[in-house]
Specification:
The complex is a heterodimer of chains A (256) and B (418). Chain A is an alpha/beta fold and 256 residues long. Chain A has helices at 20-26, 30-38, 68-79, 88-93, 106-113, 145-158, 200-203, 220-229, 235-242, 250-254, and strands at residues 9-14, 40-44, 56-62, 81-87, 136-138. Chain B has helices at residues 40-43, 51-56, 64-79, 85-116, 121-127, 129-150, 170-195, 233-238, 264-271, 277-286, 298-322, 369-382, 395-408, 413-416; strands at residues 2-5, 15-22, 25-33, 159-160, 163-164, 207-212, 223-226, 229-231, 240-243, 252-255, 260-261, 337-345, 348-357, 360-367.
């Protein structure tokens, strides 16, 4: 396929993860086709098998680099991209695969699963921004495809990096001021978590588990107190809840 | 001649392939999985029972529904919980939506380009704009079905221990019922497109494994059928051996020391008499006759299943939308025991075995469809010189056919490393 020079060259790449964020991009359906008309696809392994191109205007990366090969590839991608976007909870927070770093001895853990651990990399899991410079983070597990689409359109139209508004999930929650899950004793992290998802979880009676990570300037102490008093969680249970998508200290860092 | 294919595109996850071709004979065919280990079976230990299905959903973004529900089924099996009829119907509908969107993705965006020699879907989209819109519409319907019931199409949130958290909006259910009725024709059209394709001629006998249910085309529940034998999932697992070669981050399995195949072709092979009418018509039109030991036909089998899933969803939704949906929560008497759950994921039978103590996960073992298919796929590749016309192909054409076979299995590499 002939590549036109005017349109930005986009790459959509995946490291270790469930690839659900890429699936969410596919799930844009007709809007995904519209997106394709606005860009030149550089590399997008789920949809093509042409040789890699030399330069990307925008690289969208999901997942965490766990294997040595993935770490090497992430650095190459950074070097050949103008803008690098980290996509989803794995890329931004480390993802559930980071839990192993908190659950006792990770080397013992791997031996319980694999009889033969030779050749299997088992480093401490790092988010993408801990390895390379990241220009924009689009959070969520999975990402909100509508938010992704509107952010991408902004990037494409202005060439600038848009900001995600810092507000709690509670502001988007249909249970706000009525039937609050936390007040009824459910371990809901909506108050400290970054909005933008549209609160599909509490809307389905499922407490927010913070997949988008914390918003800035949270009051972590108040959240913990509420989880202890309203939900009767122990310190350890609170810790396990907050580490579900990795970066257990991320909540601490975001606290004022 | 050494064959080496790095980073096989258009499969879920990362893998490469190596083999030797010695005097026309394919040897040492190996799929190398290139994903980081996530140790899901380890990170779940010590967590609360109900966290397990939420976390395992993240094993796969293409088939999160099946991991989530199989996790619940294994725990419900351990706790001996009986679900109410509505919960089962709603979960079955989520499964059907999952099969529709996963199959449509694989059929149109991963596999179809292989039949035309296109190296990118953009060529496909430009050459077949109408079919592209059809495929997207079909995926949309599948996604919407999961979203309405599951609260979210990727990593659903409504399933809970013993049932579902929320009754879906009845207007939305009626809306999706209409969508399904209005688009059944598109699903049939997509099926007919796949009937017209020319599938490479390859034959290697194997055993087909799937769920089996005497009342329906088994997807959500049933016994395990292998050859002519039917057994409980627990019994089947007792004879399955997981093994791991050197440098392998994804395990393989064998049943009674032999490779076997799971997935759409296996399901059709075992259960085609239970397909819905339009799917049956399509099957007849396709001329597929069982036993059919050509894994390339897994693609066509998926296309037929899409039609079946549309019809089945319509049937179940008609049943659900006539009355009032009431969900009940079964009482959990003991939270200590062992259990097994099995489900038909888009790519084949998925197994979860769990051990729980006082509501805490002590142990969990997950056997994914791709982990089961890998050994069978490698065995096929070792015999691949018998593909009709293989000897006349040049190196690039051989590599293309190898990739096409790998993609026909619709491997989910991410699932296989969990």
């Amino acid at each position: 396929m002939k590549k036109e020079s005017k349109k930005p060259v986009i790459a959509i790449l995946s490291l270790t993860c469930c690839e659900g964020c890429q699936v969410a991009i596919f799930n844009l359906g007709e809007r995904f086709l519209e997106f394709l008309t606005k860009v030149n696809i550089g590399d997008f392994r789920l949809a093509e098998e042409l040789p890699d191109v030399k330069h990307y205007d925008i690289a969208i990366v999901e997942g965490t680099a766990i294997t040595e090969e993935q770490k090497r590839r992430l650095k190459i991608v950074r070097n050949k991209s103008k803008i690098l976007i980290a996509l989803g909870a794995c890329a931004i927070l480390g993802g559930p695969q980071e839990i192993k770093d908190y659950r006792g001895n990770k080397n013992r853990l791997i031996r319980q699963i694999y009889p033969n651990i030779r050749g299997i990399d088992n480093p401490n899991v790092k988010s993408v921004k801990e390895m390379v410079k990241v220009d924009l983070e689009i959070p969520g597990c999975p990402i909100n495809k509508n938010e992704f689409f509107s952010l991408m359109i902004k990037v494409l139209e202005t060439g600038k990096i848009p900001e995600i508004e810092q507000k709690p999930v509670c502001e988007e929650c249909p249970r706000k001021n009525k039937n609050c899950l936390l007040l009824s004793g459910k371990p809901c992290l909506g108050a400290v978590s970054l909005a933008g998802c549209g609160a599909p979880c509490p809307a389905s009676n499922f407490p927010c588990d913070g997949c988008r990570g914390p918003r800035k300037g949270i009051n972590l102490a108040a959240m913990k107190k509420a989880l202890k008093i309203k939900v009767r969680l122990t310190d350890k249970e609170i810790e396990m809840l907050m580490e579900r998508f990795g970066e257990k200290n991320e909540f601490l860092k975001a606290s004022k | 001649m050494k064959i080496r294919i790095d980073h096989i595109a258009k499969i879920e996850g990362h893998a490469s392939f190596t083999a030797d071709i010695v005097r026309g004979d394919v040897r040492a065919a190996k799929i190398k999985i290139e994903e980081g280990a996530r140790l899901f079976e380890g990170i779940l230990k010590g967590r609360k029972d109900e966290e397990l299905p939420e976390i395992v959903s993240r094993i796969c973004g293409i088939c999160p529904v099946v991991h989530n529900l199989t996790g619940f089924k294994a725990i419900e099996n351990a706790y001996n919980l009986q679900l109410d009829e509505s919960s089962v119907l709603l979960r079955k509908l989520m499964m059907l939506g999952q099969l529709i969107n996963s199959h449509a993705l694989h059929l149109f965006f991963f596999s179809l380009a292989d039949f035309f020699g296109y190296k990118t879907d953009l060529q496909l989209i430009n050459a077949y704009p109408e079919s592209t819109h059809d495929a997207i519409k079909i995926r949309d319907v599948g996604n919407k079905l999961v979203e309405i019931i599951g609260g979210r199409s990727i990593h659903p949130v409504t399933p809970m221990l013993g049932g579902l958290r929320k009754v879906p909006d009845s207007e939305k259910l009626k809306e999706i019922l209409n969508d399904l009725r209005n688009n059944l024709e598109l699903a049939i059209k997509l099926g007919e497109l796949f009937i017209k394709l020319r599938y490479p001629k390859f034959h290697r006998e194997t055993s087909f494994v799937s769920l089996f249910n005497s009342d329906e085309y088994a997807i959500y529940d049933g016994l395990i059928k292998i050859a002519k034998t039917v057994m409980k999932p627990e019994q089947f697992l007792m004879m399955v051996k997981e093994f791991q070669g050197p440098d392998m981050v994804a395990k393989r399995t064998k049943f009674a020391a032999k490779t076997y195949m799971v997935g759409a072709l296996a399901r059709l092979h075992n259960n085609s008499d239970k397909l819905n009418p339009e799917a049956k018509k399509l099957l007849k039109k396709s001329g597929m006759e069982f036993p059919l030991y050509n894994p390339f036909y897994n693609i066509l089998a998926q296309a037929i299943e899409v039609v079946h899933c549309f019809e089945e969803s319509i049937k179940l939704l008609e049943l659900l939308t006539t009355g009032k949906i009431e969900l009940s929560e079964p009482k959990i008497i003991s939270r200590t025991d062992e259990g097994t759950g099995a489900i038909e994921a888009p790519r084949g039978t998925l197994f979860y075995s769990v051990k729980l103590k006082d509501g805490t996960v002590e142990d969990v073992n997950i056997i994914t469809p791709t982990a089961q298919n890998l050994a069978n796929l490698e065995a096929d590749l070792e015999e691949f010189e018998h593909m009709v016309g293989f000897e006349n192909l040049n190196r690039e054409q051989r590599e293309d056919k190898i990739k096409m076979l790998i993609r026909a299995y619709d491997p989910c590499v991410t699932c296989s490393v969990h």
